[in-house]
Amino acid sequence: MRKVIIIGAGLAGCYLATQLQTTCDVTIITKKSAEDSNSMLAQGGIAASLDPGDTPAEHEADTLVAGAHHNKETAVKQLVTTGPTLIKRLIAAGMPFDRKADGQLDFGLEGAHSHHRILHANGDRTGAALTSFVQSLLHQVHWQTNSEALQLTIQSGVCTGVVVRNTQTGELTTLNGDAVVLATGGLGNLFPLTTNNATITGDGIAMAARAGAKLTDMAYMQFHPTLLTLHGRCYGLITEAIRGSGAILVDENNHRIMANVPKKDLAPRDVVARHLQAWQRQGHDLFLDISAIPNFTDRFPGVTENLDNHHVPFRTTKRIPIQPGAHFMMGGVATDLSAQTSLPHLFAVGEVACNGVHGANRLASNSLLDCLVSAKKAAEKIMTITPTETFKNTALPNSKVDPFLPTMTALQDKAWQYLGVVRTRTGLKTFLRWLDQFDYPSPVPTQLTSTQFAIANLCLCAEKIARAAQAAPKSLGANYIEESVVPDQAG
Ligand SMILES: Cc1cc2nc3c(=O)[nH]c(=O)nc-3n(C[C@H](O)[C@H](O)[C@H](O)COP(=O)(O)OP(=O)(O)OC[C@H]3O[C@@H](n4cnc5c(N)ncnc54)[C@H](O)[C@@H]3O)c2cc1C
After folding, report:
1. 277-327: pLDDT as tens digits
2. What's the CATH number of domain 1-220+330-389, 3.10.105.10, 3.30.300.30, 3.50.50.60, 2.30.30.60?
3. I need a surface site. Which of 161, 234, 358, 383 has the fewest CB within 10 A?
4. Any bridge partners for residue 323, and if so which?
């Protein structure tokens, strides 16, 4: 029987496991618990052209516009045509997406979608509902929680396994597999303000890069316009579905910030994030005005609970204090349409991967859909692999070393300054010079603590982002480079 090692327990990893569990020997390893992932945090929903009147072609067109046409068109076609079928299958299996009073599916609207096509579940707790539902379908997999993947093992140019550390006992083991699948999510914790779960530290991207796998589109990091922000700290996402329902972005004087921008408050995320940051830099405070939304607390129970937990008086002020922050990585480990990386037998699904579907900027609610589609395609490909008879294991050095690394806070502050919403060429150079002093490029991961490992991984990802941004001839989508103005010689 084929042995498959899936690293990561978010939607992509778990959905892949549902597809393989009856035909393969599947192990899911995950850093903390099955609940720790960005998938569990997703709020707005999952996009699919299932509403009568909507079509995959319109979904494709919206995805390409949001992605600044940097997308791989075949990947987008695969997403918008395969996605609806997979969603129908999940509904048939019992997935409880929200419905209207008449029993029809209730489609929401989000930024840059031309049609109501966002399915949601349990209001704004879609990610938790969907991921838990998919996890409930798993009955034949081996789970290894509190297990941190540290390093891919390669034999004769083929990925054969992964070195794993039990984070409670420190024990190191090598798990071998006919296919190894990265489903480790993105790298939001590179930035001080992020919507991401604490376990999301670019590990899959860094492990793949160290093993020689190709990365792509690393310049494209999506900054979400609306993170609940109190005293300069982020306390979670305020879903875009709230703007889709009529909320608007204002400052302390009730000035409507997006009034003169095409598509206004529902413009693509990079456009909104830049406008907000520019307004903030002029000394203004930023708010989401929810006064136009009836029954807010019923429609957005997850956001309501979070606001109440942080004592935000939104019921009387009708305002939520927000600012932009790091949300989603469009780039990552380069894959083909079957989730195969450049390293044989190494696959990547979900946010860690870049199959080109998101282009230079992801369309809202396309990433959960990509988790399903990329996992489905990976499963089909993995089923064609011939099982290996034997694996060789080598000794693992585990004596601790103390490499020179920045603190997480120092790294995050520099990344926000130089790799954030607006970048400059001078800033990118300054950042790379600063990074150059640290010992992150090729550490022995088994010799690092978990914190050192995360910092080294995020340093490597940051370097890849800075170099990709530098190499870009001009701004595109989420990689916005403010070019310095050459002074007019003639005066
Ligand atoms: C707050 C929030 C709201 C969002 N809302 C939406 C939305 O409404 N619609 C939408 O389409 N998208 C949304 N997104 C994006 C979407 O949730 C993610 O892109 C998607 O869930 C990623 O799924 P994944 O399975 O690839 O990775 P994740 O769900 O992030 O899972 C990664 C898994 O890998 C594990 N892991 C990481 N490193 C290691 C390691 N070294 N060893 C072992 N395990 C490891 C993690 O602990 C985790 O279990 C949102 C994201 C956030 C953060």
Report:
1. 999 999 999 999 999 999 999 999 999 999 999 999 999 999 999 999 999
2. 3.50.50.60
3. 383
4. 227
